[in-house]
Design a protein that fits this description.
Butyryl-CoA Dehydrogenase, subunit A, domain 2; glutaryl-CoA dehydrogenase (ETF); binds flavin-adenine dinucleotide; Butyryl-Coa Dehydrogenase, subunit A, domain 1; alpha+beta; Butyryl-CoA Dehydrogenase, subunit A, domain 3; glutaryl-CoA dehydrogenase activity; three-stranded mixed β-sheet
Amino acid sequence: MKAILTQSLPNDKKMRPDLFQAPDYYLLDELLSDEHKMVRDAAREWVKREVSPIIEDYAQKAEFPKQIINGLAEIGAFGPYIPEEYGGAGLDQISYGLIMQEIERGDSGVRSTASVQSSLVMYPIWKYGNEEQRMKYLPKLASGEFIGCFGLTEPDHGSNPGGMVTNFKDKGDHYLLNGAKMWISNAPFADIAVVWAKDETGRIHGLIVERGMEGFTTPETHNKWSLRASATGELIFDNVKVPKENLLPNKSGLGAPLGCLDSARYGIAWGAIGAAMDCYDTALRYAKERIQFDKPIAGTQLQQKKLAEMITEITKAQLLTWRLGVLRNEGKATSAQISMAKRNNVDMAINIAREARQILGGMGITGEYSIMRHMMNLESVITYEGTHDIHLLITGLDITGIPAFK
Ligand SMILES: Cc1cc2nc3c(=O)[nH]c(=O)nc-3n(C[C@H](O)[C@H](O)[C@H](O)COP(=O)(O)OP(=O)(O)OC[C@H]3O[C@@H](n4cnc5c(N)ncnc54)[C@H](O)[C@@H]3O)c2cc1C
């Protein structure tokens, strides 16, 4: 291998040039409209130009690269399917998915920021908010002037969010919010948080909490080995006075946050394909160049088995996700169908990352290549937005009618 080690280069130049070529084994481009391809290609070029050269350095530093926020807004990653009157891109569900795929091809942490902003903050304000709330927040979120976060998970309630203890009391002219959320993406620097809390009757509602409200703090969670280029933190509410106009009025109950998760999980199903494509493409190129025993390792049956299985799994995931996108565009996709795609595609991606890492041998563990970063990122992606197990139980419930959660 003509390995040109780059130890002498500054940190932000250590990753190799981005030579990504997207696999399309079943000519799925033929199923896409010109608009889909245009949106996807713009996102792909932007990731190559703005994300790939810097992301390894930010992941190593465990820091979110805030300078890419404007670019994310420009490629339509903040509210791809939110109507243009609210500042969104007004695109369909396939375009939304393709944008998530391309961003996660760069890094799952960057895609997480875009997913949270679009599906967990803009979506509930658009769907469950009133017109004043939409006009106040959505254009600023779409442009990246505001960054949002979504507080559902609590220290003692992860897979079972319905058990949450965060609550608010009606104090006449305001609500008094108390409790704590943890594992919240974007929390350390978010301007607003969509927070799920119980009222005095135990019913769950969404509240918009703004940075600067007294008693509201967002300590950062450190020492993550995964999603290092995404900021994660807690949301602490200590007698926070929330104005009454900040309650999302149009939907309550656990179905409200779960509706947001449907939209985010759908984006993750596409995003995971991006991470898998990057690992496959890197491993294929490496295997063709790396000579051992006087021939490229790509010419060995063992490595061909790995690569052939990768492209097969990517192709299956692409078909599954494209069909799910069509169903979403027609308003027919069920939550259980979305669970199946999220679960399948993230599992597919993490397995491909592990195999691809091995194809690169020792080089696979370095930050010169993206594979190890993808692999570690996917450990979060397989856990958040419903764990691998929980999505299986959702499919189990859907096909048997019997919940096996308890
Ligand atoms: C990096 C990162 C970012 C995140 N971002 C956000 C965010 O922005 N907003 C937010 O609200 N949350 C966020 N989360 C939280 C995430 O959604 C939760 O971690 C996830 O839902 C799992 O909850 P838990 O970690 O408490 O695990 P637990 O619920 O304690 O689960 C532990 C294990 O038990 C299994 N398990 C649980 N219940 C059952 C059952 N009934 N049957 C069988 N097995 C079961 C699970 O599958 C898992 O393997 C984030 C998490 C991470 C790691």
